[in-house]
């Protein structure tokens, strides 16, 4: 039995379905279901039974959830004792980040955090993708990470920001607004270079919506993308919050919107004080809308 299993059982009881619980925790649904089944096998009891489209607690499941809430509350209280420290003096905080989220971390979050916690030295660990981020956390090379969600079930995720993917195109492009997803089929796009982490992200988005555009230009020179669009070479899919120069281009939303949720992630272990401070700071920043 472990705390992750208890968290998943309590979330399933609160949300009524394993799918909703997984979405609330920003973990993969199969990982959550597997953890609950493992706990049931370990205890030798059935915690949930199907009820309509969801699940309902069995009698013994209600008792387990009641005690799980007590246990999780006690763990949270114990972790809270870690705040008695010397103001984080001389400490180092290691944060892993994917390449597409690095501008958010280094350009927005860290400068503000440094003003609040000048004694904390932050080391940024750059990772190509979510798998490498998870590996850094598991190996203890990073205390926290900023990455896209969901993450594997052995990680704890705290939602940070929902990012919108938009179409950046030459003003001459005639397309309905907001842009229907079907418009991407056959559209000429400026794309990141093949094999890059940025290209993998865009390819994932395109596969998810079932669109097949035409690669007009492939370049990993991010600073040149807008110029290529402005020159009429093609349109660009990218995140609205990472567009600084919109002169000479048109930015359009999709219908339905294309979004990706990012989060602050850590392994299921006690966080050092500086990491707890950064997590609290990031949550407050997200709540205040940056």
UniProtKB/TrEMBL annotation:
Pfam families linked to this entry: HTH_1, LysR_substrate
GO molecular function, one term: DNA-binding transcription factor activity
Residues in HTH lysR-type domain copies: 1-58
Sorted UniProt keywords: DNA-binding, Transcription, Transcription regulation
InterPro entries: LysR_HTH_N, LysR_subst-bd, WH-like_DNA-bd_sf, WH_DNA-bd_sf
GO annotation, cellular component aspect: protein-DNA complex
UniProt keyword Lipoprotein, yes or no: no
Family: Belongs to the LysR transcriptional regulatory family.
PANTHER family cross-referenced by the UniProt entry: HTH-TYPE TRANSCRIPTIONAL REGULATOR CYNR (PTHR30346:SF28), TRANSCRIPTIONAL DUAL REGULATOR HCAR-RELATED (PTHR30346)
Protein name: LysR family transcriptional regulator
Lineage: Bacteria, Bacillati, Actinomycetota, Actinomycetes, Streptosporangiales
